[in-house]
Q: What sequence folds into this?
């Protein structure tokens, strides 16, 4: 068993994917080819965003967003302490200050409650991260940002396809709510390509143009550079693969959801673990199926599962405020003790679009065996 089975999905989609790759090889339009433009407009339409700007990976997407919003060295950006490193790394790389806030134990996500204590006159942006497959509670975060004139950059690398429901009933895709939404097409992500890839979403025309300009060496006209930019492109081959896979994204989300329901049903009643909690305001696309293992037994459970041939992963073993690279540049808001406790407790089980009930039964039996 693997943590993520990419092979099974490829075999299922093979005729369409192989044809898409062959088409690009024949056209040899490897850079900024027709599939890149077509994918960008199909992706924007899927997400309900006015614009989608493809780029080289999800980390670049976050960096380009910060650059296009005009943030300057010393500006502060609020980011959750419990997330993948990329969410905060780009803040530090640009000489900005990551202001780390704690997260909600139940959902792993940051909430609006912590924002008041986090802002200073230098605060310019918030990066809510929709971790593991469900949306942060965005309405109060967006309200707070509006009141304090802060930009919102959604890190949607793990939750593409999820819907957030506003208090008035409006349903919006994650990544379509902030000034910029960023996502990743890393192979194991819910919409993964066969290499690296990423994209940014924006509803504002001028901002979308700036994102595209920054991603393209800061040039609107070739060889005339208005601003400092970077070289961040999505390969045409990856775009062609993603066009095929985008047509299946909702079905991928449903398959992951069904697998998650199966785990939750069958793990019910095991004392010593907490299965994932689904928020009332978000659908869940289960990028990860993450347990909390209580009473300090997480590492023992992980080791036991390994002896049974079952992979399980710790996302993430160290909260960002405890990382050596971040200690000297971080402003921590409060104790960040939930982030620390989560890092000590989380364990993610194998999940993907192809996992079969028999495989999940083996995982469940092994967990029961450990606690018996
Ligand atoms: C994967 C991921 C990224 C970065 O994406 P890459 O394509 O690997 O650069 C950023 N944020 C989160 C939360 C991620 O999971």
A:
């Amino acid at each position: 068993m693997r943590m993520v089975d990419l092979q099974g999905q490829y075999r299922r989609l093979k005729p369409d994917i192989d044809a898409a790759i062959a088409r690009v090889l024949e056209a040899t339009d490897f850079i900024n080819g027709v599939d890149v433009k077509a994918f960008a407009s199909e992706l924007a339409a899927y997400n309900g965003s006015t614009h989608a700007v493809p780029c080289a990976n999800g980390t670049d997407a976050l960096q380009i967003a910060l650059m296009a919003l005009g943030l300057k060295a010393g500006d502060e950006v609020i980011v959750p302490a419990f997330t993948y490193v990329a969410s905060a790394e780009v803040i530090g790389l640009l000489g900005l200050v990551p202001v780390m806030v704690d997260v909600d134990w139940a959902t792993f996500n940051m909430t609006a409650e912590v924002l008041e204590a986090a802002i200073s006159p230098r605060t310019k942006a918030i990066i809510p991260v929709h971790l593991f497959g469900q949306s942060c509670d965005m309405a109060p975060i967006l309200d707070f940002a509006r009141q304090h004139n802060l930009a919102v950059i959604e890190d949607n690398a793990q939750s593409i396809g999820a819907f957030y429901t506003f208090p008035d009933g409006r349903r919006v895709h994650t990544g379509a709510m902030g000034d910029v939404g960023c996502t990743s097409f890393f192979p194991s992500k819910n919409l993964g390509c066969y290499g690296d890839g990423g994209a940014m979403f924006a509803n504002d025309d001028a901002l979308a143009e700036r994102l595209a300009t920054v991603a393209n060496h800061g040039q609107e006209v070739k060889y005339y550079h208005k601003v400092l930019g970077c070289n961040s492109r999505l390969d045409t081959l990856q775009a062609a693969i993603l066009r095929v896979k985008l047509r299946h994204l909702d079905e991928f989300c449903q398959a992951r959801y069904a697998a998650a329901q199966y785990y939750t049903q069958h793990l019910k009643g095991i004392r010593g673990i907490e299965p994932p909690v689904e928020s009332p305001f978000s659908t869940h696309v289960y990028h990860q199926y993450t347990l909390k293992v209580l009473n300090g037994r997480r590492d023992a459970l992980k080791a036991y599962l390994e002896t049974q041939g079952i992979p399980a992963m710790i996302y993430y073993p160290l909260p960002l405020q405890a990382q050596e690279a971040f200690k000297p540049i971080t402003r921590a808001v409060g104790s960040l003790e939930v982030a620390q406790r989560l890092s000590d407790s989380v364990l993610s089980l194998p999940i993907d679009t192809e996992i079969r009930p028999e495989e999940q039964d083996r995982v469940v039996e092994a967990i029961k065996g450990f606690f018996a």
